[in-house]
Design a protein that fits this description.
Layout (H helix, E strand, L loop, with lengths): L7 E5 L5 H17 L12 H9 L3 E6 L2 E9 L10 E2 L8 E8 L8 H15 L4 E6 L4 H9 L3 E8 L2 E9 L3
Parallel strand pairs: 5-6
Antiparallel strand pairs: 1-2, 2-3, 3-5, 4-7, 6-8, 7-8
Helix pairs in contact: 1-2
């Protein structure tokens, strides 16, 4: 589904956004639990994770009007867990990583998850990087569907905190 609201902005998160971002992440944690997923059910992410994202310049939000509607961490640094993959990455060059993506319950079903991926991809290209990598839990059906629809290719399994995660990669075109 394409976003019903094209009047949004994508911007770096500020520390003043941390409480609202955490509220959105907490909603997503509960959504994962209700869906029967094990993803994000172990105390991570947490408010400190979000504050660290923002302090490191990795946090981004989609804002509609003056309300934060979605969040992601867009990281322009190596992801240590991606160095050991059961499978094979297509690209060995520089890459960006999308982590901790969530949409507010108030904006769910409006296509903002895809919008945040598209905005992240534009930001990555503008930085001169041509590859974005992401992972998700095997039981996160919504995210698996989004990744497939946006052309992300399954590359194998990576491990976070002892659990296998499905790893995906997309080569970006200008």
């Amino acid at each position: 589904m394409e976003t019903n609201n094209t009047n949004y902005s994508f911007r770096k998160a500020e520390m003043a956004d941390a409480a609202k971002v955490w509220e959105i992440i907490a909603q997503a944690i509960e959504r994962r639990r209700r869906d029967g997923s094990t993803q994000w059910q172990d105390g991570y992410p947490n408010p400190t994770s979000i504050q660290n994202d923002i302090a490191d310049g990795w946090g981004y939000v989609i804002e509609i009007g003056s309300e934060i509607a979605a969040y992601c961490a867009l990281i322009f640094d190596m992801e240590p867990a991606y160095e050991k993959i059961e499978g094979k990455w297509h690209s060995d060059g520089p890459y960006a990583v999308l982590h901790r993506m969530a949409v507010s319950d108030a904006f769910a079903g409006q296509g903002l998850a895809k919008a945040i991926f598209r905005e992240a991809e534009k930001t990555v290209l503008q930085s001169g990087i041509k590859t974005i990598k992401v992972d998700t839990n095997f039981d996160n059906a919504a995210m698996l569907s989004i990744l497939k629809s946006l052309g992300y290719q399954y590359r194998g399994e990576v491990y976070f905190r002892g659990s296998a995660r499905k790893a995906f990669e997309k080569t970006l075109m200008e």
